[in-house]
Amino acid sequence: MPLLALLVLVLLAAACAAEPPAPVPVARSAPAARAVPSAAPSSAQARPAPSAAPEPVPLKVPHAASGRYAVVRGTAPARRGRGAVIRYLVEVERGLPIDARAFAAEVHRILNDVRGWARFQRVDRGPARVRIALSSPRLTIRQCLPLRTGGELSCWNGSRSIINALRWAKGVPQYGHDLAAYRAYLINHEVGHALGHHHQSCPGPGRLAPVMVQQSKSLGRCRPNPWPHPGRKRREGA
Prior knowledge:
This protein has 5 helices and 6 strands, in the order αββαββαββαα. It is an alpha/beta fold. Strand 5 and strand 6 form a beta hairpin. The chain is globular and about 45 Å long. The termini are far apart. Pfam families: DUF3152. Keywords: Signal.
C-alpha cells in the first residue's frame, strides 16, 4: 500500500476514536402525581363516629329509704262531671329516686280517667278520704303488716293505699312492657280497697280481669285490665 494512503487511514481512525459517542436517550419519569386527600382520613386523624343515643338506664329502687313520708305539695281539681268528689292526697317516702311531683301528676291523671272509680280532687292537707303513699319495699313490708307482701306487693292498710315503689318502677310480667297500664291498675286496685271494694276472681277464660283481681300475682286465665269501668269511652279533657 502506498505510504500516503496508509497515512490517510491512520488519521481517519484517530478522528473516529476521538469523536464522542452519541448520547443515549434517557426516558424522563412522569412528574410525581400531586397527593389528593382521600375521602376517609387516616386512622391517626379519624374522628370517632357519633355514638347512638344511650339506652335509658333502668330505675333502681333501693330496698329501703328514709322510712318517713312527705306530703307532695300542690293541688289539682277533679275532672268535670257528675257525682261526688273524693278528696285525696299523695305522700312519697323521702329518699326514693322517684320524682314526687311527677308521681303525683300521674296518680291524678289515672284517678280522673273516665274509666276510673269516681272524680278525685287532690289536696295537700286534710281532710282527705284517701292517702296514696309511695313506699320502698322495706316500708311497704312494715306498713302492710299483718299482711305479708314479701317486699313485692302493695296493699291497703286501713288508712293508706301503700304503693310499692319497686312495682311502680318495674311492673310485672303479666303486663309485659306496658308499664303505664300496670301503674293504672296498681293505683285503681289499691284505691278500690280504700273505697270499700274487695278482691274478685277471674270471671272466665279470655275475659278482662276485674280491677279488683290480684293481677300482680296472677291473671288466672283472664286478660289484663287496669280500669274499674273499661267499657266507658275515654273523652278528651275528661
